[in-house]
Amino acid sequence: xxxxxxxxxxxxxxxxxxxxxxxxAVLALAMSAPVAAQEPAxxxxxxxxxxxxxxxxxxxxxxxxxxxxxxxxxxxxRGVKPLVGAFAGTDxxxxxxxxxxxxxxxxxxxxxxxxxxxxxxxxxxxxxxxGTLEFQSxxxxxxxxxxxxxxxxxxxxxxxxxxxxxxxxxxxVAFLVSVPLR
Length: 182
Known about the structure:
- By secondary structure, this protein is mainly β.
- A hairpin with a 5-residue loop joins strand 7 (about 135-145) and strand 8 (about 150-160).
- It is globular.
- Residues about 1-15 and about 30-35 have low confidence and may be disordered.
- It has one helix spanning about 15-30, and strands at about 40-50, 65-70, 80-90, 95-100, 105, 110-120, 135-145, 150-160, 170-180.
- The longest helix has 18 residues, at about 15-30.
- The protein has an 8-stranded antiparallel beta barrel.
């Protein structure tokens, strides 16, 4: 019998399968859209709050969070590019991760960027995510300024996809500044 935390609340599907299904949908979308113009690598800086939803006993507090990501300009496949990053919470939590992202131009100025990564999470003194290996999925919305600078916001979810006995997950919202590295 599976642990109740390992089940997707919406349809009873195991969380790992739900995560794979969502990642497949993102990749299918990435394959179907035209490739955006080549842009340089960027440093993406973020500040916001994590633990914004309290949907279980493990995520008990909203904490401040700061993040940094290096997003390469190297095209792996059809606009999907690598990223590496880290975030730290005011409760002492930390997450270091690597993954992929894909920019979709909504117009010449507006860009939506879904991303997925895996990494190592260290609990702070407030929110316990159930284990060290955690997965992050999210979407950013950016406004592109002159010279490639971007200003935007993100919504992200970090969880362990049910690989541990406890899978509380945590959501983060943040403001982002993307600085092109030329």
